[in-house]
Fold:
Amino acid sequence: MKKLVFATHNAHKLEELRAIIKHFNIVGLTDINCNEEIVEDADTLEGNAKIKADFVTNNFHIDCFADDTGLEVDALDGAPGVYSARYAGEGCSYQDNVNKLLEALKGIENRKARFRTVIALNINGEQHFFEGKVEGIITKEQHGEKGFGYDPIFLPDGFDQTFAEMPMDVKNKISHRGRATQKLVEFLNSMTTK
Ligand code: ITT
Structure:
């Protein structure tokens, strides 16, 4: 099976992606001994995905893809957005971020939000981008223990379970990263059948 690096140190994301992309051997940054912190200092998701993918291509000369995800909350003018990982400050935990968001939305009735993922793929000397998003609302309390990040407070439209209450395969079918990854998979499939 052809090896494809997923430029992430996040084990949850790696597990989700391996469950979707079955015909490539997906390896993470730890697997290629890339233990450096890649500085994601762009102000867009596209920019950060590109920084991560290009870092791997330039330093390891191997085909790879990287993603960046943001949670965009309408009542907060799109925040935390590209800053979702460190919303509650540098080195904060997922729980710190959840607490900060629930606090910021206290008393606010408009709870509409979306997760958006951008994937940058570097393959055969070319760069391609794929996007996926899912609309939903931020709940008033946390529900569920599965997943990671903001999953316990994100209720996707049309469902009565938060992402943290859903089995991973259900989340993967409708999620931001799942949808972006499906586009990536269609592209990879079209390449292998050419
Ligand atoms: P890498 O940069 O190592 O890939 P990361 O944890 O920084 O991993 P992202 O930049 O993709 O991940 O996402 C930024 C933050 O958005 C992440 O730290 C989570 O808090 C949140 N997030 C991303 N995907 C999520 C998901 O599927 N469910 C809930 N929260 C998510």
Q: What stands out?
A: The chain has a mean pLDDT of 95. Helices lie at 11-20, 45-60, 94-104, 168-174, 176-192. The domain at 2-193 is CATH 3.90.950.10 (Maf protein).
